Each structure stands twice: as structure tokens, then as C-alpha cells.
């Protein structure tokens, strides 16, 4: 039933009607009152738990502390009850756009939540903070929140299936602004015209270069999706007040496709659910067992396997070549030509995007830890640096083909490793998908999401708080408006004080 929307550039004198624009069709999907399938509801619950897990683990990190204080410096606006901020007391609330900002940074800081990879990249769980913040602010119930999240996931995943931003060095959050705006529109029950204007504004304000993920990667990497979520909330607010957006935002001769993507002769086919078709996109996404860029997940599992087998001593390695997809080679591999990816003094954000570093540490340690694997001491260890600099990547056409395959059985994010030892011995192995992937050795299920939450939350949340949140999250579609307003995590006394935020303008 899926409809392929054909997207191309139109001259101004063609006067493309809004009903023919991609932003309008996105809005139509958002306004379709189709019910959310039970398995989709189940996965939405999993991802709400997953987001809270990684947010808990990042509560005391400096970028999260700074963003949290910014939100707290913007108190609840008139006309609503505001939204909760991760870590803070439930009664201490911020205006929804700033809560979306703070919570979005907390979720994204450790690069540890769900992912979808196709023509482009995405972390569709980034839709949860802005949609949840608005739900709390307006007093929506759990059923409305579920419908909004189903739309957010669907739109972002559909855009990622069809439109590559990375090729043009545009940051992938340009797909997040429209999806979050659409999800908020569904949550609020807005009409197609209003959501259309909000989608256009959200896209227009969230297109930026990809330098945030290149070279020495800064703390903005975690802020970028939070900014997109904040812009989506503000775009919806403006659209509800009757304000309009640049149009046609995708198709115009001075629009996104013509000048930021494939140019005036470009054409894309974007798959969107037909009227009455359930929004099931979330089921094609996958979460992370390890706190590292998704394309490193399978490689960590393969390194762990090689370590456990003990077939060779890493100290005896002459070279390691990871034969993999185009994206992996050029984004987190040696094909990026970023010297920072081999620098033991590089930032955590940079190491997270260095598969040579990640594979070296996982091979030596037999696993991965969201904190310990990134410490300066760990990155600077002499034997690690020596091994790290012997690891390179190479693009393999077959792994690139599998990366882009639309057949879920074929689609893969791993590759083949060739280890050459000093004595000339060659050891080869391969892995297609991470162990936690739906087709992997140990697919993540509800108990795994709960286990991940308990592990990451235990150092910063009281036991009773852990149980309180899990109870609410697992009853998500049945929650009352008051219970939705409690859907947050509250840190143990003293935890937030241990990470004071620097003073800014506010």
C-alpha cells in the first residue's frame, strides 16, 4: 500500500500546488487517523525506555548539564503546564521547546540509542524528546503520545530511505526537523494545512553542514538533534498561530533539493504510507548494545568474538584491514582521511566515530563500556595506540551493496576482517549485523531494554525511581495526561549538583 512520492525540482513559473508537495504529503500522513499496530506500540515502549537509559547515563556530563541549566532558566510559559527535564524533580518544569532541547542533548550525548541506516543516517529516537515535551505541556494522554511517536518515527525513516544528505555534507538532522514537527502535529490533532506549514519551517531551520561530524568532533554533535527538536516545537507553535513557511521548501527552484542536494535535475522517490496504512517504520530501526556509532556495533561484536576465541595475540598483529561498506569506510574509517581518528588525545565524540580505535580496544578488552572505553587513559595506552595505527578500512562493493539493500535479510552493516600477523599468518572472519540487531545472534527484546535501563540508571537513580519509571513506560498507551506528565527520570539527591553548569546569558 505504500505510495512512492516522486520528488523533483519545479520552476517558480510551474506554480506547484501545495497538494503536490512532499511537505503536504508528509502532513497528510500525520493527519491520517489510522490506529497504531500492537507490535508498533510495543516497540515504541521499548524505545521510550531506551531513551531514558542513555539519558540517565549522561546526566552528569558537561554538555548535558549545560543544556539542562539552559532549560531550567526558561520557566514554564503561560497557557500550559510545561515539560519535565531529565534528572530534575518532576514539579520543576521548563517550557516545552527548552525541555526538548535539554532532554534531546541527554539522549544523544553518548550516541547510544536507536538507529536507522539507508540512503542516509538517522537516530529516530531523537523524535521522542520534542514530542514528549509537547505532550506533557498540553496535557495529552498516552494514546495521543503513542500516535505522535509513530508518526515521528515513520516520517524520519521514510525520508532516510530515499534522500541522502551525507553525500552533500548536510547534517542528517535535516530529516529530523520535519519528522518531529509531523509527530507533534499528530499528537495535537492539527489539520493538514497547519502541519504542512510546520514541516516546511522545521526543514528550513534545521539544514546545516555536516562539519559537526567531521575532523575534531565537538560537543555540538549531541546538540544538533536537540536543536532540530527545539526548532520543530517552535515551528509548530508558529504554524498554529497562522504563520506560513517557505514553499515549496523541497521542490522550489531555490529550495533544498535544488541547492543543497542533487540539484535542479534531481529526482527522488520517497515512500510514504498510503491513506489507512499503519505507520510501521519504527520496526525497521534497531538499537545499540554498545555506546558507539551504529556502524561500529557489529565490529565490536566481531572483535569480542575474536578476543574470546584467543586465536591470536593482538601484540603479534602486523596489520588489520576491515573490508566494509562505503559509508563505514568514509564516515568512521580511514577513508574519512581524518588524522584525528588516530589521535589518542582526540575527543570522546571523535573516538566514537573512529572504527580503527573502537576495533582495537574491543579486540584487546573483549567488550565495550560506555565510559571506560573512552577515557584518556584508555585511549593513550601504548599497546592500544600501536595496534590502533595498524588498523585501516577498505570499501568493498559487495558490503556497500548489502548496506543499501532493501531486502532485510541481505541488509548488513558489518564486513570482513583480514588480520595479518607478524609471522605471515592470515586470519579472516566476517559479520553482517550486530548481535543485538533483529537478525543478529541475540536480538534485543523487552527484557534487554529493561536490563540496559537498569544498568545505566542504577548509579544515578534510586531503586524506587527505576521501578516507577519502568511501570509508567510499560503502560504507555494507557497513561492518563497526569501520568504522561510524570514520564521522566529523577536523579538521586546530589547527582546533578556534582556536575554544575557554567553560567551563560540566561
From TrEMBL:
Residues 21-267 form the MmgE/PrpD N-terminal domain. InterPro entries: MmgE/PrpD_sf, MmgE/PrpD_sf_1, MmgE/PrpD_sf_2, MmgE_PrpD, MmgE_PrpD_C, MmgE_PrpD_N. Residues 290-475 form the MmgE/PrpD C-terminal domain. Belongs to the PrpD family. This is MmgE/PrpD family protein. The lineage of its organism: Bacteria, Bacillati, Actinomycetota, Actinomycetes, Micrococcales.
Amino acid at each position: 500500500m505504500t505510495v512512492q512520492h516522486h520528488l523533483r525540482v519545479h520552476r517558480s513559473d510551474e506554480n506547484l500546488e501545495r497538494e503536490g508537495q512532499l511537505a503536504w504529503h508528509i502532513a497528510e500522513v500525520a493527519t491520517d487517523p489510522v490506529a497504531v499496530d500492537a507490535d508498533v506500540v510495543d516497540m515504541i515502549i521499548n524505545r521510550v525506555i531506551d531513551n531514558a537509559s542513555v539519558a540517565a547515563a549522561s546526566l552528569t556530563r558537561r554538555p548535558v548539564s549545560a543544556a539542562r541549566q539552559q532549560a531550567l532558566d526558561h520557566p514554564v510559559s503561560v497557557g500550559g503546564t510545561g515539560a519535565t527535564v531529565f534528572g530534575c524533580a518532576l514539579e520543576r518544569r521548563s517550557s516545552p521547546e527548552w525541555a526538548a532541547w535539554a532532554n534531546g542533548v541527554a539522549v544523544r550525548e553518548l550516541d547510544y540509542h536507536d538507529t536507522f541506516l539507508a540512503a542516509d543516517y538517522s537516530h529516530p529516537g531523537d523524535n521522542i524528546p520534542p514530542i514528549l515535551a509537547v505532550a506533557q505541556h498540553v496535557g495529552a494522554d498516552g494514546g495521543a503520545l503513542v500516535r505522535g511517536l509513530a508518526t515521528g518515527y515513520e516520517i524520519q525513516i521514510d525520508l532516510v530511505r530515499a534522500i541522502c544528505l551525507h553525500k552533500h555534507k548536510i547534517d542528517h538532522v535535516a530529516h529530523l526537523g520535519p519528522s518531529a514537527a509531523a509527530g507533534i502535529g499528530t499528537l495535537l490533532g492539527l489539520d493538514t494545512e497547519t502541519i504542512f506549514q510546520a514541516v516546511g519551517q522545521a526543514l528550513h531551520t534545521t539544514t546545516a553542514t555536516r562539519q559537526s561530524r567531521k575532523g575534531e568532533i565537538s560537543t555540538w554533535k549531541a546538540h544538533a538533534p536537540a536543536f532540530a527538536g527545539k526548532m520543530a516545537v517552535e515551528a509548530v507553535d508558529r504554524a498554529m498561530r497562522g504563520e506560513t513557511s517557505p514553499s515549496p521548501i523541497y521542490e522550489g527552484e531555490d529550495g533544498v533539493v535544488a541547492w543543497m542536494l542533487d540539484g535542479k535535475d534531481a529526482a527522488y522517490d520517497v515512500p510514504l504510507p498510503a491513506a489507512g496504512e499503519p505507520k510501521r517504520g519504527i520496526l525497521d530501526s534497531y538499537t545499540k548494545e554498545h555506546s558507539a556509532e551504529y556502524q561500529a556495533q557489529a565490529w565490536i561484536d566481531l572483535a569480542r568474538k575474536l578476543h574470546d576465541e584467543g586465536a591470536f595475540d593482538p601484540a603479534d598483529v602486523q596489520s588489520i584491514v576491515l573490508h566494509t561498506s562505503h559509508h563505514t569506510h568514509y564516515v568512521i574509517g580511514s577513508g574519512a582521511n581524518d588524522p584525528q581518528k588516530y589521535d589518542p588525545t582526540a575527543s570522546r565524540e571523535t573516538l566514537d566515530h573512529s572504527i580503527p580505535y573502537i576495533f582495537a580496544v574491543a579486540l584487546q578488552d573483549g567488550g565495550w563500556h560506555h565510559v571506560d572505553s573512552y577515557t584518556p587513559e584508555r585511549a593513550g595506552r601504548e599497546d592500544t595506540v600501536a595496534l590502533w595505527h595498524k588498523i585501516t578500512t577498505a570499501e568493498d562493493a559487495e558490503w556497500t551493496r548489502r548496506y543499501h539493500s532493501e531486502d532485510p535479510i541481505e541488509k548488513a552493516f558489518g564486513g570482513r576482517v583480514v588480520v595479518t600477523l607478524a609471522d605471515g599468518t592470515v586470519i579472516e572472519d566476517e559479520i553482517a549485523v550486530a548481535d543485538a540487531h533483529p537478525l543478529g545472534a541475540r536480538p534485543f527484546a523487552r527484557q534487554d531494554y529493561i536490563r540496559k535501563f537498569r544498568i545505566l540508571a542504577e548509579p544515578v537513580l534510586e531503586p524506587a525511581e527505576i521501578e516507577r519509571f519502568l511501570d509508567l513506560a510499560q503502560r504507555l498507551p494507557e497513561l492518563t495526561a497526569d501520568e504522561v506528565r510524570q514520564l521522566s527520570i529523577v536523579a538521586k539527591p546530589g547527582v546533578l549538583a556534582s556536575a554544575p553548569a557554567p553560567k551563560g546569558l540566561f
